[in-house]
């Protein structure tokens, strides 16, 4: 007798607005940022918080106010039941997408029925990835994570490891010009502004600290302004205009088994159809979404044309443009409401933010399948495919 396959359902998803650096959320403690998303998630779901079996949050560079297992401190800061544990994940920019994977895997394995996944990051207070490396310099520890006689960078001839270098390498290898990237970046702002003006994000956002909409999109930007910016590196093609914004925010999702759906009277909004992660060249670093997407589609038995909405993180315009060239995806279906160039990239929260937006966009448009992917430090990428129900 065949055993029916277990399913993992997304039953609720919510996020804070994404605040720009020094903006309306910059003074909010990271634990309070995450607590706000969790409080709203529990209220919207109607589930008894004590029934949650684990809280899995993504956060990059868990130092200072983000230290001490931020998943746990966010839950407690929200005043939620102390018997519910929490754990923090760091897979660089994909941290909260990986948190969703771990939550879904717990449900699919049958070891849990109700798990919260999400992420939080206040980049105004802790500026950018690798901040944890600098935090130990007063102790005399100055070597980076890739150093040492057996450090993995030794395999690559001691080459510079930098997201900026990786994005430049992609632009050169895939013959993506600065003008190409500026056209893409301008469209990201245009799409994001349209989405805000049409109220597309209102259902997914829980206003906080007087902020009710994403602060990143620039209504006053133009191709001419972008063309006037200085390159980030001498002789390079990248500028701030074609890069993701430093941001603050949090997001949370509730993942449930079939048993939990029945027991708590929940309405499944999407089924987790596929989840995987792959690695690639750690020096080029940001191109891993290309092989990861190919791997995921093959494993799922799908073609890119079957995907109705794609959310791929706009760490840099070159990342998405190279991915588009390799996958042949329809650009109209990719980041239809703008991406991190316009909306911002609060590192550890971005994966959960993208999934929250993806779910709501599938519901808005009536699409069936959505795919999410993002580049990550160390040359990695997660891919999640969901089916709207």
TrEMBL record:
Top-level division of the source organism's lineage: Bacteria
Q: Where is the Thiolase N-terminal domain?
A: 9-258
Annotated TM spans: none
Q: A Pfam family name for this chain?
A: Thiolase_C
Q: Which family does it belong to?
A: Belongs to the thiolase-like superfamily. Thiolase family.
Where the record annotates domain Thiolase C-terminal, the positions are 267-388
What phylogenetic lineage does the species belong to? Bacteria, Bacillati, Actinomycetota, Actinomycetes, Streptosporangiales
Keywords per UniProt: Acyltransferase, Transferase
Recorded protein name is Acetyl-CoA C-acetyltransferase
Among InterPro entries, the record links this protein to: Thiolase, Thiolase-like, Thiolase_C, Thiolase_CS, Thiolase_N
């Amino acid at each position: 007798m065949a055993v029916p396959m277990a399913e993992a359902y997304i039953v609720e998803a919510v996020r804070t607005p994404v605040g720009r650096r020094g903006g309306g959320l910059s003074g909010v403690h990271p634990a309070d940022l995450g607590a706000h998303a969790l409080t709203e998630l529990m209220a919207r779901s109607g589930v008894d918080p004590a029934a949650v079996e684990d809280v899995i949050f993504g956060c990059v560079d868990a130092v200072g106010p983000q230290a001490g297992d931020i998943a746990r401190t966010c839950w407690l800061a929200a005043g939620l039941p102390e018997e519910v544990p929490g754990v923090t994940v760091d897979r660089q920019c994909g941290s909260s997408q990986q948190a969703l994977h771990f939550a879904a895997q717990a449900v699919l394995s049958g070891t849990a029925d109700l798990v919260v996944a999400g992420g939080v990051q206040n980049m105004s207070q802790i500026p950018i990835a690798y901040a944890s490396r600098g935090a130990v310099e007063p102790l005399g520890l100055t070597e980076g994570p890739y150093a040492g006689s057996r450090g993995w960078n030794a395999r690559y001839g001691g080459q510079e490891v930098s997201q900026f270098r990786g994005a430049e390498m992609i632009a050169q290898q895939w013959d993506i010009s600065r003008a190409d990237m500026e056209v893409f970046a301008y469209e990201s702002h245009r799409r994001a502004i349209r989405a805000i003006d049409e109220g597309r994000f209102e259902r997914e956002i829980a206003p906080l600290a007087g902020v009710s909409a994403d602060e990143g999109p620039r209504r006053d930007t133009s191709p001419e302004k972008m063309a006037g910016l200085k390159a980030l590196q001498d002789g390079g093609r990248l500028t701030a205009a074609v890069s993701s914004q430093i941001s603050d925010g949090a997001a949370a999702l509730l993942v449930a088994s079939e048993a939990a759906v029945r027991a708590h009277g929940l309405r499944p909004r999407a089924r987790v159809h596929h989840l995987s992660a792959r690695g690639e060249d750690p020096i080029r670093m940001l191109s891993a979404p290309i092989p990861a997407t190919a791997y995921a589609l093959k494993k799922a038995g799908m073609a890119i044309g079957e995907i109705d909405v794609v959310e791929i993180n706009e760490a840099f315009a070159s990342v998405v443009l190279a991915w588009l060239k390799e996958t042949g995806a329809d650009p109209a279906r990719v980041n239809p409401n703008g991406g991190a160039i316009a909306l911002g990239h609060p590192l550890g929260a971005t994966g959960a933010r993208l999934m929250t937006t993806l779910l709501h966009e599938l519901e808005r448009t009536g699409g069936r399948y959505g795919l999410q992917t993002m580049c990550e430090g160390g040359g990695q990428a997660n891919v999640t495919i969901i089916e709207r129900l």
